[in-house]
Amino acid sequence: MVKEIIQKGFIRLTPQKTVGFSLKEMETRKKSVAVVVDENDYLLGIVVKADLFRFLREPGHYEDYPVELAMTKSVITVKPDDDILKAAKMLRENNISAIPVIDDENKVVGIIGLEDIVDYCIQKNSLT
């Protein structure tokens, strides 16, 4: 189950946070992905460092722009009780590196990435 590998120490951003703030937060916390949520933790979007760098390369885009202009709004998600293999397939099929985990109310409760799945597989196979 996804809940076995969920990462709860993920970066939460509000849509008004700037692109510059978001990049600094990712760098400081050594993360490459952040979820964008409202004040009640409802998922609004997701952003990865590569999205932010692509955004900044566009003429007229600046670090003080809100992150909501650079985020992906159509987000693929999983639930805590979903199968890890299902999550892995979703990551590969959609060529993404991380996926938010949402509860039944669509609130973000965590995130999982390819590294988490690989670590889980290594740990599981080293116990046998």
Automatic annotation (TrEMBL):
Arranged from A to Z, the UniProt key words for this protein are: CBS domain
Sequence ranges assigned to domain CBS in this UniProt record: 6-63, 71-127
Looking up Pfam families in the UniProt record yields: CBS
PROSITE patterns per record: CBS
Q: Which top-rank group of organisms is this from?
A: Bacteria
Name it.
CBS domain-containing protein
Q: Which organism is it from?
A: Thermosyntropha lipolytica DSM 11003
